[in-house]
Amino acid sequence: MSQSQFTRRTLLAMSAGALAAGTVAASADAPDAQDRTIEGNVVYRERMMLPAGARVEVELVDVSLADAPATVIGRTEIKDATASPIPYRISYDPALIEPRNGYALQARILDGDTLMFINTTRHSVLGEGDEAGPVEIRVERVVAQPDDEAVVDSPVGRWLAEDILGGGVIDNAQTTLEIAEDGRVSGRGGCNSYGSTASIEGEKLTLSPVVATQMACPEALMNQEQKYFDALGRVAAFRLVPAEQKLLLLDADGETLVRLAAM
User: Fold this and answer.
1) C-alpha 106: how far from its chain's center?
2) What is the pLDDT of residue 130?
3) Contact between 57 and 107 (Cβ < 8 Å)
4) According to the model, what pLDDT value does residue 154 have?
5) CA angle, 218 then 61 then 159, to 5°
């Protein structure tokens, strides 16, 4: 073999080796492109079967901006669920996850266009201290179904806020009110749990000053919660809309402060 042939073959072999090494290095540095998953169960406390055709929607959302619609990172829909618990598995692209942002799971159950159940508490995920294993999402009943003959005739019961002081509500933060038969009041302001006492005389309704936990949440959510607590302090009466299963909390002039739907 001539010196020129040896040199040419040696250079070719070295080039091929370098190319292969470069390919391996590039593969080692490349990000994992496979989706990741979160799984668990959607549960509700009622002992009931879901109607045929009901569907369960579960979403992984970015809740960092409380004053803006939540950004959906992953979504799944279950169409063959019959009763609680309802297993779910949701996939997401890890490249969409920002370490400084906040993420949560939300779920709802619908019968056609009628909302039956929705989660009323936040289920945070993907952050430090959040659940790493299966995540249980508890949902609460929102409206009575057509087969239910109960008629709303009292503010006693469980309610979900739809509007606060005419400003609507943040989509991913459920604000609730529960009035017990003995007048005890409890619920969530969107961030914190709270308690109070109701005095009901005819259509008059007053609430004692709210006592709430002191958790910190995004500014927009805290602002909405404070508006809600302020509104509760101004309540002087209530009005029911039985056909729509709504409760209106009114001020002394009869103006609506908060509109709520039966749960």
Assistant:
1) 3
2) 65
3) yes
4) 78
5) 70
Which residues does residue 15 pair with via DSSP β-bridges, in sequence order? Answer: none
β-pair partners for 258: 164, 249
Question: What is the bridge-based pairing of β-strands 36-43 and 86-92?
Answer: antiparallel
**What backbone torsions phi and psi does residue 4 show, to the nearest 5 degrees?**
-70, -40
Count CB-CB contacts under 10 A for residue 72.
Answer: 12
Residue 110 neighbours by CB distance under 10 Å: 18
Q: What is the mean pLDDT of the chain?
A: 80
Torsion angle, alpha carbons of 49, 50, 53, 56, to 10: -140
Classified as helix, coil or strand, 233 is helix
Cβ neighbours around 138 below 10 Å, total: 16
Look up the pTM and report it: 0.50
Residue ranges of the chain with per-residue pLDDT less than 70? 1-33, 66-69, 129-132, 143-153, 171-172
| Contact yes or no for 181/157 (Cβ under 8 A) | no
pLDDT, tens digit, 9 for 90 and up, residues 17-75: 443 333 333 333 343 458 889 999 999 988 788 888 899 999 998 887 765 667 889 99
Give residue 212's pLDDT. 92
- Residues with Cβ within 8 Å of residue 57, at least 6 apart in sequence: 75, 76, 77, 107, 108, 109, 110
**Spatial distance between the Cα atoms of 221 and 67, rounded to a whole number of angstroms:** 7
Q: Which pLDDT does position 91 carry in this prediction?
A: 92
Half-sphere exposure in the Cβ direction for 9 (13 Å, CA)? 6
Q: Rounded CA gap, 135 and 127, in Å?
A: 13
Residues 6+ apart with CB under 8 A from 174: 118, 119, 120, 121, 160, 161, 188, 190
Evaluate whether 254 touches 235 at the Cβ level (below 8 Å): no
